Amino acid sequence: NSNGDTTLPTPRRMMFTHVDAANWRDYAAMNQLVLFSSFPSITMEFWNDWIERADMGRPFVFDRVLFADRAAAMHGTNFLKTQRTAANAFALPGSVHWWSPIRNNVMRFAGLKEEENPDALEITAPPVITYISRQGWGRRMLIPEHHEKLVQELYKLRDTYGYEVNVVSMDKLSRQEQLRLAGRTTVRNNH
Fold first, then answer.
1. pTM for the full model?
2. Looking at residue 135, what DSSP letter applies?
3. CA dist., res. 92 & res. 86, Å (int)
């Protein structure tokens, strides 16, 4: 439902059949933070575990299985529009609130209070706008003049309408601070 309540059990196991334990983590360590805050009791299996299962020569039966294929996702319409492999899942039939239980677990773990959650706020609450700046990264940056103009216009929105505007470099925040800010944000622009 809209609160993120579900009767489905949480996943118990995640299997990566083509990657080892050392290579599923991202450089910012967000993969493991989001996974383990979403599903604290999940177990992980990797390529070598899959080989060991196969070597047993016995079938393994699971109650429910979800397959994800990143290479196949890259052919999906939503991926082609967004360049995000997870985008295809948002077009599947089902509850529009399917992501809420996962999001809520991560936000609670990060310390976001219920009253700070934009999904729980009244529609009249002022927007929280976050511009994630990568100007210091050396890649994926805006032309400096365009960056300055964007920041100037965002601050005009703040001053004119009372919007909350956050111009941040995420690498300067802790992982929990990044999640709390993302969780409170209602408008995002990622450059």
1. 0.71
2. T
3. 11
Question: pLDDT tens digits for the chain (191 residues)?
Answer: 777 788 888 899 999 999 998 888 888 888 889 999 999 999 999 999 999 999 999 999 998 888 888 888 888 888 888 888 888 887 888 887 888 888 888 888 888 876 566 655 455 678 999 999 989 887 788 999 999 999 999 999 999 999 999 999 988 999 889 988 988 898 754 54
* Burial bucket for residue 179 (CB in 10 Å: 0-12, 13-18, 19+): buried
* Contact indicator for 185, 118 with CB cutoff of 8 Å: yes
Amino acid letter for position 167: V
Return d(Cα 77, Cα 88) in angstroms, integer.
7
In the chain the first and final C-alpha atoms are separated, in Å, by: 32
Phi, psi of 166 (to 5 degrees): -120, 120
**Secondary structure letter of residue 96 according to DSSP:** T
Per DSSP, the three-state class of 130 is strand
Q: Are 191 and 132 in contact (CB under 8 A)?
A: yes
Helix (H, G, I), strand (E, B) or coil at 160: helix
22's tokens:
């050392």
